[in-house]
């Protein structure tokens, strides 16, 4: 194995490991896994960057891609990097400005969350050169690219773990061992009888790495540096983030886990100050937000808000979404520093949770794309793909057309296509201005055009109608009234109030979406809000009304 030592820490850590180990006299020092040498992709250019002093990601709309299911370029039935590259025009037309790629590295399972080699691309997906081509092309299409970073565990087939099964190997202490079995289910017997148990929160095939060992941290930093510096990615989505370091029987959210992410932040910012990290902390908003206060991750996903968006869309009432935004999200996260979504690859698909209704899916999309945070759209959500667990069924191939295999592959798809593909597909929805896909295009376009939707402060409004989700969004350049009708009935004359707010004087009110008539002016009350404002415009069932306020001269 050729030696490549990027930093002294790694080498010292290896020496420390050996010296601490009883079998040090026979064990070879741990050498860093060598990485390929490549020229990095140049940073993306041409994006609107940092409106109102916020980071670039607050101007972005992300799209989560499961590459195996997106588009197959060579007929082997598996989606691949070249397939995604071929579909960048589609994504650009959709309006997205960021991609989250689920794991791209060689892995033991189809989904990729049990990595075999952190410095390579899965052979089903392509090569490192193919990945660089994708990065270049995505950047040229105005999209930044973040990749999944699976650091809590490796595959049990990873060479580190295989070597570490030997108690005399320096890799043994890269994993968490016990002679007894402290907690059935979380500990798994080593293959050799009497060799003890290893810790694997997600199962025997995913042994947890031991970050109490500085050698593991040094190796992971090297991997982070490789993808940022040598390959040129724009950041990471950190998988299973809250499970990183165990403390006794505490398996989640330990102080040591938070401390480790502070170190990760210091390290990656020293490599790439513009890089973004978004953590998967599947927990209540205050816990998720505790990782996103500016010293650990840039963002974490707000799972509570995602569920509230879907609940509100399903029952046709604004209350759950508004209450969660006010009581949980705004109290738990720094302003706008959260990742918003409806569903991801671990959850039943959005339209499946909305009783199969395209209309409710449209309303949910309006909540997502007009609310504060950085929105993430799961591939296929924009056309209303269906899927209920098991996992393979929520990760089925993208439905591009009504043709054979939904236009996904010329071969045999790795997973059967959803039988509704003749009706539900991109080709059918793309030219139809009333389709869910067109709704997504329109909403993303509005978000990309209106700074207040991206970076505006959020003020929930009171509406007399329980189906009306209304807010005031205020950026430095723009003030918007956002009104979403979650019901199956038109709302003909919404009545909106804001007790206390940032307004003063009188405002002309201009529709930002095409409307039949001009609303009356809005006059602020003494507390900067307004009382009983009536735009006198109808909002169609499941529709959106967007009004721009301009201070009267
Ligand atoms: Ca393929
Ligand atoms: Ca762990």
How would you characterize the overall build of this protein?
The protein is of the alpha/beta class. The protein has three domains: 8-32 and 156-199, Alpha-Beta Complex (Oligo-1,6-glucosidase, domain 2), CATH 3.90.400; 51-149 and 220-357 and 368-423, Alpha-Beta Barrel (TIM Barrel); 456-551, Immunoglobulin-like, CATH 2.60.40.1180. It has 15 helices and 20 strands. The protein has helices at residues 8-20, 81-86, 88-94, 128-140, 159-164, 214-231, 255-271, 285-289, 303-315, 319-332, 350-353, 358-370, 426-429, 436-449, 451-455, and strands at 62-65, 98-101, 144-149, 177-178, 187-189, 197-199, 235-238, 276-279, 299-300, 339-341, 374-378, 457-460, 462-463, 468-474, 479-485, 496-500, 506-511, 522-523, 528-533, 544-551. An eight-stranded parallel β-sheet has the order 9-8-7-3-2-1-11-10. The longest helix is centred in the middle third of the chain and has 18 residues, at 214-231. The protein is globular, with a radius of gyration of 25 Å. The N and C termini lie far apart (73 Å). Mean pLDDT is 91; it is low at 1-26. Residues 72-74, 76, 78, 80 line the site of one calcium ion.
